[in-house]
Amino acid sequence: MAHRPAAGRLEARNVTLRYGDRTISRDLSFRVPDGRFTVIVGPNACGKSTLLRALSRILKAEKGEIVLDGKLIERMRARDVARTLGLLPQSSSAPEGITVADLVARGRYPHQSLLQRWTVGDEQAVAWAMRTARVEELAERSVDELSGGQRQRVWIAMVLAQETPILLLDEPTTFLDIAHQIELLNLLRGLNRRQGNTVVAVLHDLNQACRYADHIVAMRDGLIVAEGAPRDIMTAELVMRVFGLACMIIDDPVTGDPLIVPLEESAGADATSAASA
């Protein structure tokens, strides 16, 4: 299934991405749909996180271009990029002993200068981010003392405090229990719909992706296999092609979105045989 890139402010143009001697993606092109909630899905080591790192300028493309607002991102000032893109990486480490409030406040650094350090606007942004991520009660605690789920919410608060129009989140639901996963996904969808933030998230749960995203990008082996609205692209054939999983697709009884139901092993073998017949 061919993919059709949608218009947006951020895009990768024919990029080749490598880690050491290993090529992850070659001649990959992707335009982040502006003002949409996009979810990238795919099996482990297929290039999802690598693409996100390249889009945020953490990883330099060996070939091709990453373009932000019509400019080559590698030539932009780091502060200008940080005022536009907020990134939640897959794993983060905080300085030893730092408090939650101080870590969240670091999200305001791109908005400050030597002449103007801390403002009422900064204070309000940090308070809003902590309230939104539900970490207000943790403000004076050391990040070192927190559980994995609490830390994840603190890092999300720091990204929110950055107040960028584009949010890139690599597996943001990691370490979160199911209730906090749904709370976070509702938060991200709310930011997208009410404030117009462009959101790109890497998720492993296909059913969460179908329920919350309005644009899904399916990757395998460093390539984009398909992209589009969940109802347009999510088929049993695509799930088999990308994940090697036999399934059936039904309508979610609550939302009507595609719902992936894995088949029993025997049924999966039959489905695979039938698909290849």
CATH T-level topology: Rossmann fold
The main sheet comes to: 6 strands, mixed
Q: What letter string, H or E per element, gives the SSE order? A: EEEHEEHEHHHEHEHEEHHEEH
Helix content: 25-40%
Assign the structural class, choosing from mainly alpha, mainly beta, alpha/beta, alpha+beta, or little secondary structure.
alpha/beta
Set down the secondary structure blueprint:
Elements lengths: L9 E10 L2 E11 L4 E5 L6 H8 L7 E6 L2 E2 L5 H5 L2 E4 L11 H6 L14 H13 L15 H14 L4 E5 L7 H18 L2 E5 L3 H7 L2 E6 L2 E6 L1 H4 L2 H8 L3 E5 L6 E5 L2 H12 L1
Helix pairs in contact: 4-5
Q: How is this structure best described in words?
A:
This protein has 277 residues and is of the alpha/beta class. It has one domain: 3-Layer(aba) Sandwich (Rossmann fold). It has ten helices and twelve strands. The protein has helices at residues 48-55, 78-82, 100-105, 120-132, 148-161, 178-195, 206-212, 230-233, 236-243, 265-276, and strands at 10-19, 22-32, 37-41, 63-68, 71-72, 85-88, 166-170, 198-202, 215-220, 223-228, 247-251, 258-262. The chain has a six-stranded mixed β-sheet with strand order 6-7-8-3-9-10, with helices on both faces. A four-stranded antiparallel β-sheet has the order 2-1-4-5, with helices on one face. Strands 11-12 form a two-stranded antiparallel ribbon. Strand 11 (247-251) and strand 12 form a beta hairpin. Helix 4 (120-132) packs antiparallel against helix 5. The longest helix is centred in the C-terminal third of the chain and has 18 residues, at 178-195. It is globular, with a radius of gyration of 20 Å. The two termini are 19 Å apart. Mean pLDDT is 90; it is low at 1-6 and 266-277. It is found in: Cell membrane. Its main location: membrane. Pfam families: ABC_tran.
